[in-house]
Amino acid sequence: MSALMHLSDLHFGAHDPDVCAAAQRLAQRLGVALAVVSGDLTQRATASQFAQAARFVQGLHARSTLVLAGNHDLPLFAWWLRWGRAYERFAEQFGLDQEPVRQMGPFYVVGVNTTRAWRHERGSLSSAQIEHVAALLARAPPDAWRIVASHHPLVGRDATDRAHRPHRADEALQRWRMAGAQMLLSGHVHEPGVLQPLPGLWASRAGTAVSHRLRHGSPNSLVVLREETSGAAPSQRMRVAERWDYDRASGEFACVLRQPVVSG
């Protein structure tokens, strides 16, 4: 059994140390193969907040990590950095690659950067990005769980929610599904949920994993993806998405929802 842990919206600088420790304990207990962090690592993109976020991610002890920038990871008050140096502090801790690709066990994850230096909050995708992701998906191993991770959600539940989507979201959904995408991971809205926008394509949004910035009545939460055998034959595989919420009474994360998403 393999596990991918998806966390988002850490917001270091507005984080809860007790929740951080609980998330690290959960990751170590599950033996996470791949940790995906889909942006907003910091509250105000300061060097010290990025350093805190990096220590937290290292403390998950995942065998591999994929980390993306969010809109909060671009300098707001140090506005002069947005011209040519917008990702400088992010890169100091997490590297220059803003669109990493990771393959670990059954998981094949393509990261895409939906943030823009000239935007404060709204995201965007270029036609070149959409085609690049499609080409990477087409090259994935045939049995891999093909996943695309972004900060901004490509799927919305209602009109208000859809306002959070990046530009060209509909184009990306159709193109990536044709290229073989099976799961989308995102954050940004601080409201967890699993949706199926198109046949064969699922979208999972993580809440805020470890910050005080709770919204919509949702607690701190994260997502765990698993691939398990579902029968006597090893070829019978079940893929599930689990929502884990932080329980303040116990001081630990607990699984509150288990959703089959695709089997093969």
Could you please describe the fold and organization of this structure?
It is a single chain. By secondary structure, the protein is α/β, with parallel strands linked by helices. It is built from six helices and twelve strands. It has helices at residues 17-30, 47-59, 88-94, 127-138, 159-162, 169-178; strands at residues 2-7, 34-38, 64-68, 101-104, 107-111, 145-149, 183-186, 193-198, 201-205, 221-229, 237-247, 252-263. The chain has a six-stranded mixed β-sheet. The chain has a six-stranded mixed β-sheet with strand order 4-5-6-7-9-8, with helices on one face. Strand 2 (34-38), helix 2 (47-59) and strand 3 (64-68) form a beta-alpha-beta unit. 48% of the residues are buried. The model has no long low-confidence stretch (mean pLDDT 91).
Largest sheet: 6 strands, mixed
N-end to C-end Cα span: 15 Å
Q: Spell the H/E element sequence.
A: EHEHEHEEHEHHEEEEEE
How much helical structure, as a percent, in the residues?
10-25%
Proportion of beta-strand residues = 25-35%
Unreliable spans: none
Question: Helices and strands: which structural class?
Answer: alpha/beta
Instruction: Compute the CA-based radius of gyration.
Output: 17 Å
In DSSP terms, counting alpha (H) and pi (I) runs of 4 or more, how many helices? 6
Shape: globular
Mean pLDDT comes to 91
Strands, count: 12
Strand order of the largest sheet: 3-2-1-10-11-12
